[in-house]
Amino acid sequence: MPFLLKEKEANMKENVTSTTIFLLLLFLNTNLLNGQSAPGKPKIEKCRSPEKETFTCWWKPGSDGGTAANYTLFYRKEGESLTHECPDYKTGGPYSCYFNKKHTSIWMIYIIWVNATNQMGRSMSEPHYVDVTYIVEPDPPLNLTLEVKQSEDRKSYLLLKWSPPALVDVRSGWLTLQYELRLKPEKAPEWETHFAGQQTQFKIFSLYPGQKYLVEVRCKPDHGSWSQWSPENSIVIPSDIKMKDTTVWIFVAILSSVVCLIMVWTMALKGYSMITCLLPPVPGPKIKGFDTHLLEKGKSEELLSALGCQGFPPTSDREDLLVEYLEVDDSEDQQLMPTYEKDHPSQGRKPTQLDPDNDSGRGSCDSPSLLSEKCEEPRIPAPTFTIPEVNEKPDDPGTNVTHNWDPQGINFKGKNPYFNALGSKSSTWPIPQQSSNHSLRCSYHNIADICKVALGTVNGPTVSLGKEENHALNYPTTIDTGGEETTDKQNELGHFHSNVDQGTTWLLPNEKMPFMSPRPMDYVEIHKVNKDGALSLLPKQKESNGNTEQASAPDSSKEYAKVSRVMDNNILVLMQDPRAQTRVIFEESAKESPQPLQHNQAEKNLSYCTFPPGDCRLQTGGLDYLDPTCFIHSFN
Amino acid sequence: MCPKGSSVKGSLLLLLLMSSQLLSRSVESLPICPSGAVNCQVSLSDLFDRAVMLSHYIHSLSSEMFNEFDERYAQGRGFITKAINSCHTSSLSTPEDKEQAQQIRHEDLLNLVLRVLRSWNEPLYHLVTEVRSMQEAPDTILLKAMEIEEQNKRLLEGMEKIVGQVHPGDRENEVYSVWSGLPSLQMADEDTRLFAFYNLLHCLRRDSHKIDNYLKLLKCRLIHDSNC
After folding, report:
1. Which of A197, A222, A226, A192 has its CA nearest to residue A207?
2. What is residue A401's predicted lDDT score, i.e. its pLDDT?
3. Spatial contact of A129 and A95, defined as CB atoms under 8 Å apart
4. What is the architecture, at CATH level 2, of domain A142-243?
5. What is the spatial distance between Cα A362 and Cα A350, in angstroms, rounded to a whole number?
6. B91 touches chain A (CB under 8 A)
7. How far is the C-alpha of A61 from the C-alpha of A73, rounded, in Å?
8. pLDDT tens digits for A28-87?
9. Is the pLDDT at A593 greater than 90, yes or no?
10. Across the interface, do B206 and A78 touch by the CB < 8 Å criterion?
């Protein structure tokens, strides 16, 4: 009997153990099926205030927190010790807490945390410190409108308008908003952003017509974050502008082509005249007024008048022509044609278009043809210097110049009336007044003037001729031109001419010399006139056309040769200037050795020119240059 | 001839004097009224525009300075937890939301602004001094601190002018909060010292924002009749 009882007790213990184990296993399985555990730690993600008057916080549940957990949010404000729970879990959506105006304080730190509770336990998030001041992020702007408008100058632009978000209080100044917009053509990849400041409208120019544009706008408070972009708005730019541009360009193209055609036509028709207008042809050499037919006819007066030898003395504005100078022609077959052959009273200018090449020394009336054809006509060339008898007494008793031009001695044959006129005038020629011991008057004339004076002068003030220089002239008293036949004189003059241009100087006795217009001729300068009437010439410095002055004087200041004497009544013998190395010497005449004595005298007598007191300067030594105007005035 | 010459000389002299007066002032602070003018009537609108400009600028600088300091020195130190209720100006009862700010009278609000501004004169001065001596401080922070100190003085002048125009005669005694954080700034312990700086910059950022907000409210209220 006791054996059976022991067996029953063992069976009962086994049953209890297995049941317990079974129940435990069942319990565990049940728990595992339900998923119950302590919630994970939530995390507060973001808090945001749209208008700085309310704010919302969002949290994220913990990783292994199930849906069954309850989340509660608590907060504490800075400076307070009370803990509050979230007033609104719904407005902000799931896992959010919305703080309305009553519960929102600015410039105060909120300490916020979230509790997650479930059946298994609870967990708490980290505290989150937030100051509403710095979490302001407004809503996007509203009511974005687009409109294409035309400005005054017919330019079209896009006008954007919008309004601030609804909740933001801008009117009281609680928030100050700044806006930004962006636009792009529909298919473009990138946006073009523009900052608009605090204004609620914007103009955009230079958009492509015919395109569809998309526009968005956003805003930012003065010390907050940018809002999201507003919903997109689009517009299509009308394309009528394009047509207008095309029309304008077509019109411009047509107009320019018409203008080009006109220009081409004008060029074709009048090209030549235009070219001549732009590039005038170089005029050929010709004597103005010279008519060959008249020459053939033999009407010298008309020819000469036609040549325009008028107007002596020259009264023009050219100051350099105030210097009278004697023009000496160096061509052998040419005679010196003094300009007095022209109209005597007129003191016109010789035209300057004369051929400079071979007309040197020639008066304006001179021309090879003229001279050759009128060889028998009386000439009154420079040899008339030589022609007049230097018999007259000089008006200045003490001067070196003692010759007078004897008008009667000049035989003017021929038909040249000028000579006669000059001759008639000679008697009335004013006697130069001299105010000093120097008897010679210095005046400057061209050859024509000299000739005139030669014809008409009573006294013989020496005149130094030169290229724009005034020199006292010494003319030899041996110059005898009186009574000589002009033809002879011409021949001699021709000789003379050939040598003259190198530096012969002419002595012109005149107080009032008509001016001849300057021509590109060689002028010889009369150095001075000594008491014997020797013509002192200074050699020309420049390159001699002729033969005489090969070794021209190195002293470039001197262009004068002194006439030492006249030989055979028709040859001027030049002296060598001691200052110059070489001297011009006549070919025909014997080479005269330089006469330094006379030269020296000549040099010393340079300053014998008299000047009207107060008008001209008396220069001593060297070459004296006198302004002829002073003579003219003094004579008057 | 003589009177003409003297009048010309006199006008030239006057011109010279005026130009020297204008030039003697620094370029940055264009005077609203030349010194010596008793009844200078610069408009209130211009005064407010200028004040708002200055306050906005000061807060921008403060915000940048705080962010820079926070990133550089305060990461992981948990300073924010300690910087609760630690500003010396918290004793000044300032409005804490829009309703309170709109309910307060503008004279009181102006006086409040003046008090806050005055409370920051000394702390700003010491901030500059201590930042300068702090070798590890970058130049940007120092420059901003100096600029803030300078502009704060100008804003104070402007506000006093505004107060003189808005409600003259209601001159209160100079009330302001005393700042006593200097010893903390000079502590040898780096953590303590850095927290002192952090706290100072934190409070500066907040107060400059308050001033800016109050002035913008006042401007819209007084100048634009609450219709900005």
Report:
1. A192
2. 39
3. no
4. Sandwich (2.60)
5. 11
6. no
7. 12
8. 665 555 556 778 889 999 999 999 999 999 999 887 655 678 899 999 999 889 999 999
9. no
10. no
Do A176 and B217 make contact, defined as CB atoms within 8 angstroms? no
d(CA A636, CA A634): 5
Q: Which of A52, A133, A222 sits opposite B206 (nearest CB)?
A: A133
Q: What is the mean pLDDT of residues B152-181?
A: 84
Q: Is the pLDDT of residue A16 over 60?
A: yes
ipTM value for the complex: 0.82
| Three-class DSSP labels, A97-118 | EEECHHHCCCCCEEEEEEEEEC
Read out DSSP for A218-252? Answer: EEEETTS---PPPPPEEEE---HHHHHHHHHHHHH
Q: Is B94 part of the contact surface with chain A (CB cutoff 8 Å)? A: yes
Query: Does A172 sit within 8 Å of B221, measured CB to CB?
Result: yes
DSSP code string of A36-69: --PPPPPEEEEEEBSSSS-EEEEEE--TT--TT-
- A78–B85 C-beta distance less than 8 A: yes
Domain locations in chain A as residue ranges: 43-131, 142-243
Q: Annotated binding residues of B for Zn(2+), as ranges?
A: 56, 212
Say if CB A83 and CB A74 are below 8 A apart: yes
Residue ranges of the alpha helices (H) in A501-595?
none
Q: Which percentage of chain A shows pLDDT scores above 90?
A: 26
CA distances from B161 to A489, B32, B42, B164 (A): 115, 10, 10, 5
- C-alpha A375/C-alpha A379 separation (Å) is 8
Q: How far apart are CA A330 and CA A228, in angstroms?
A: 107
Closest Cβ–Cβ partner in A104, A172, A176 for B226: A172
Judged by a CB distance cut-off of 8 A, whether residue B129 touches chain A is no
Backbone angles phi, psi at B152, to 5 degrees: -65, -40
CB within 8 Å: B226 and A174: no
Question: Who has greater pLDDT, A568 or B118?
Answer: B118
* B154 lies within 8 A of chain A by CB: no
Decide if pLDDT at B137 tops 50: yes
Count of C-beta atoms within a 10 Å radius of residue A488: 14
Q: Which amino acid is at A12?
A: M
Contact B213 A174 (CB under 8 A): yes
* Closest chain A residue to the Cα of B217, Cα to Cα: A173
Quick: pLDDT tens for A172-222.
999 999 999 999 999 999 999 999 999 999 999 888 888 899 999 999 999
Q: What is the pTM of this model?
A: 0.51
User: CATH topology of A43-131 equal to that of A142-243?
Assistant: yes
> Per mean pLDDT, which range of A102-106, A130-134, A442-446 is the poorest?
A442-446
B226 closest CB neighbour out of A111, A171, A222: A171
Supply the pLDDT for residue B184: 86
* pLDDT value at B176 more than 90: no
Q: Is A171 on the interface with B (CB under 8 A)?
A: yes
Looking at residue A552, its pLDDT comes to: 41
- With an 8 Å Cβ cutoff, is A108 touching chain B? yes
What residues of chain A lie within 8 A of the CB of B219, using their CB?
Answer: 173
Greatest Cα-to-Cα distance within chain B, rounded to the nearest angstrom: 83
Q: Which CATH number is A43-131's, of 1.10.580.10, 2.40.30.40, 3.40.50.300, 2.60.40.10?
A: 2.60.40.10
Domains of chain B from N-terminus onward: 43-224 (1.20.1250.10)
Q: Does residue B26 register a pLDDT over 50?
A: no
CA distance B77 to B72: 11
| Whether A21 contacts chain B with CB within 8 A | no
Burial A113-152 (b: 16+ CB within 10 A, else e): bbbbbbebeebebebbebbbbbbbbbbbbeebebebeeee
Of A85-89, A170-174, A233-237, A238-242, the least confident: A238-242
